[in-house]
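This part of the workshop introduces the protein records we will be handling. A learned vocabulary of local backbone shapes supplies the integers on the structure line. Getting from the letters to the tokens is the skill we practise here. As an example, a complete record with its sequence and its structure tokens follows.
=====
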Amino acid sequence: MIISALVKRYEDIPDIPIGWQKREVSYALDIDEYGQLLDVILLEKTDNEAEQKKRTLTLPLEFVRQGIRAYEIANFLCDNGNYMLGVDPKKFESARRIHEELLRDAISPQTRAILAYFSSGIPRFPSEKLDKKTAVAAKFVFQFSKINGRFADYSDEVMRNAWNMYYTKESGGLIRCLVTGKEDISLHIHSVLHLRGGQSSGSRLISANAESFTSYSKTAKDRAADVGKYAAFAYVTALNMLLKDEKHRKFIGGDTLVFWAEKGGEAEEALFSDMMAPPKADEGKNLEDCISKLAKGDWIAGYKPDRLFFLLCLSPNAARISVRFFHVGAFGDLLRNIQAHYSRLHVVRDGKTPFRFLPLWLILKETTAKQAGDVSPLLGGQLLRSILTGMDYPFTLFYATLERIRAGEAVSQTKAAIIKATLVKNYNESEVTTVALNEDSTYKPYVLGRLFSVLERLQEIANSNTTIRDRYFSSACTNPINVFPTLLKLSMHHASKLDNSVFYEKLKRELLARLDDESPFPAMLSLDDQGRFILGYYHQRQSFFPNKDKVEA
């Protein structure tokens, strides 16, 4: 299903011919008709000091390098400085062999120049242009300023024909491809994918190049799956293009989400990208209008709700790439699930969080000690899947948020939103999960949370240096009976210092009246009741500080 969908994606891309790929190139080796190196030209375009853009050319597909003699595998027309400039003499010799093999029967001034370049031996290293460390990491391509001014790439007909003849020649037995259903050459080792967090040399989605990856009673030399050469090239090309394109890729924790619509769905792809990465509150008017329409049950003009949409979440691994999930569904269903998620997250704003719709990276950040590397490696993919498919939120998200609060972190808008959304979705809670304060609720954990907020506010006014939250909050939301009697005694002391404590004392009495006389403070609160306690605390806290969301709520 995944491979066939990616092959279809490739077939919808008009400008990538079979056996070729878009590659970023840093330098051009300018040679004359006799193969003499005239200059090394930097091809990176610098728009500003912080960003450099490499030149992208359509070049022959990179070979797969593996094994103890991987250095003998050189790429045609484009490679790093080891192969193209002879920084490593053995690799330069490998490059000479592959170019002689492919170009021996191709006759043109450009082919003769390349053959002469390699047959002349290792050129003098252009140290005035770059150092050897840079050369080894960079990609080089040939350029012919004295012949025709072009690069040696797909635009050169002689080079194109030489590579196509080599790439399409039969190198193995024919098989029935499981993806396309057609007869094709069997491809044992597939090309690599470049995934963030993966190996620098690239990782594979499908491979059976070691005994540990094979099926029972099979060896690495046996056919693991009958995937033809065309399908293998097509899915790798399509997926690498998605991974490189910011319009079709989002990073969720340590995972990478790629997404695309069936042919003609560029508008749906752009809207989905905006929905997954909402801007700040003062920049997202268009997105807010779209979500508002969805919340009312209306559809957004200009988009097709029944258009097929594909989502693939990948995670780097030491060997093969892991698939977190693959989901195919109607675009309208996906958008409604995302809108429902944002509605569940909607809570009165604290004036510190600049987002109206909380992005995923901010949600995940609240589950850690403020370091992105501490996010659970599985949580990002699990949370994303629950949002897109309408499943329950992962319990890890709820528990990790409670842990950070109990560890002493403040109850921020994002943490309160996580708790509210989880209570709504996973526990079907409705009474205490309002956007702002529910003054009519008599649910004990929620009332206790409100009461703690009132007691804290009393102490803040009486003594602004410290608050009871730093010392007592964790115990209050887990074992109320151990803490609240002490806090109530302290509040009397704090109130005696104030001339304007009437409002808070009255509110305190009203909340105490909602607790039963026999057991006003439970010995222990369950995890979901701890969430209700925290939500009551947050709602009451924000009611003391009016903001622009209060009228809306």
